[in-house]
Design brief:
elongated, four-stranded mixed sheet
């Protein structure tokens, strides 16, 4: 199945890590305009994040999401919005 985000060159990604009930989670969404110029949003990840919230562990998790959905991270049109905590810098 081909998703809209596989057909577009422009998208915005958001990601966030949070804690609830002594467990950590990672969430990621994708937002884009499809070929009909309709705004579309997708939840790409909402999963447990085990271990420290270090930049290398975060990068590992995000790269796993990119690989799962075949999102080319080298496209300069993409950006990722975070909550600007020090571990995302």
């Amino acid at each position: 199945m081909v998703h809209d985000f596989e057909l577009t060159d422009y998208m915005s990604l958001t990601t966030h890590i949070w804690s609830a009930n002594n467990k950590n989670y990672l969430g990621m969404t994708a937002h884009l305009l499809n070929e009909d110029l309709k705004r579309k949003s997708y939840v790409l990840a909402c999963c447990r994040f085990k271990g420290s919230h270090t930049y290398d562990r975060i990068a590992e998790q995000l790269n796993g999401v990119f690989a799962r959905y075949k999102i080319a991270v080298d496209k300069k049109e993409q950006g990722i919005l975070t909550d600007n905590t020090s571990n995302f810098s």
